[in-house]
Amino acid sequence: MRAVVWHGTRDVGVETVADPRIEEPTDAVIQVTRSGICGSDLHLYDHGSTMAMRDGDILGHEAAGIVVETGSEVPNLERGDRVSVPFNISCGHCFMCRRGLFSQCETTRAMGERKGASLFGYTHMYGGVPGAQAEYLRVPQAHFGPIVLDDAISDEAAMLLADVLPTAWQAVDYADVPIGGTLAVYGLGPVGQMCVRVARHRGIDRVIGLDPYPDRRRAADEHGAVSVDVTAADPVEVIRDATQGRGADGVIDAVGMDAEGSTADRALQATRLRPDRIAALEQALGSVRRGGTVSVIGVYAGWMGRFPVGDLFDRQVTLRWGQANVRRWTADILDALRASPPLDVTGLVTHAPPLDEAPEWYEHFRDKDPGVVKVGLTPR
Predict the structure, then answer these.
(1) Which residue, of 167, 217, 308, 334, is most buried by count of CB atoms within 10 Å of its CB?
(2) CATH architecture of the domain formed by 169-321
(3) Which residues share a beta bridge with 309?
(4) CA 27 – CA 71 distance, rounded (Å)
(5) CA distance 372 to 361
């Protein structure tokens, strides 16, 4: 089969690799119909050599497809089923899974229990499981993970259900904005855009979206946000001015470790003195009101020095963060997609190129070329 493989920093290719096969009785194999390029993939694209990537690893963790084969202990799937495959691999029955913490699954977690659940296509820190940017995908723990879909759910929505939708849903849920409150969203890439849509669908009337790119701000405005150019003014002061000097009730950091930051931030990251650029997180922490909540859904990888613990303690700020617990939210999301009016996911996937064009679309997405918000690769 053809697959997107990692060779080194900013070096990916599309190559012929071995087809996946059933290895465990709880496995399934799917033919991939759509596979997204995620902002998290860009972390590997830029920094994979420091994140336990190996030459030849298959990338990707956002998959929708059709079941072609199942193991002997997968009674829930049949050949021909349309499915969305959650990006985290969870068993559904361990201590953590029983508590809805599927991203912390004890059955699949890697590195001697020092990391959370295994992830598709996301380094050997998270299991080294071959990824979804391929024509076929082996799905471990298929007795629990894949979500069977009817024809009412589009391929676009099915792919988003693997990561972007539950990630945004959890981010909004964790932000805990009260009725009549204000939500601020830092970063209007695919997840930030979906946070805006989910927040408005769930009844949050006032959403402030913050991003340096005008096309992304326009897209958020079209779905009910009030956008702010973070390069034109201090975003913390803008939010405080809009909230009677208090700050937002809830703030989402949908940016993560590769925030724009300053020249100094980039130098610290390049020299590995500080693996993450934390400008967005610092702004998010500064933008929340006393007693409010900061929901961090952007990925961070390293320890942070000079973290403002004293200030957060004084202000009684709640921090909630972590990988999305995908299966915890899928029933609610499917209800929202089928509601009247439905949660709107149309147009978020702006480009659907063939799999063989993946290397150039990694570049377009990384460079935030105008109009490139979400790329959904089409293997066939």
Answers:
(1) 167
(2) 3-Layer(aba) Sandwich (3.40)
(3) none
(4) 5
(5) 9
**Contacts of residue 280, Cβ cutoff 8 Å, sequence gap at least 6:** 186, 187, 253, 255, 256, 259, 260, 298
Q: For domain 2-163+324-377, give the CATH number.
A: 3.90.180.10
Q: Kindly report the pTM of this predicted structure.
A: 0.93
Q: Where in the chain is the domain with CATH 3.90.180.10?
A: 2-163+324-377
- Determine the distance from the C-alpha atom of residue 171 to the mean position of all C-alpha atoms in its chain, rounded to a whole number: 10
Query: Which regions of the chain carry the CATH code 3.40.50.720?
Result: 169-321
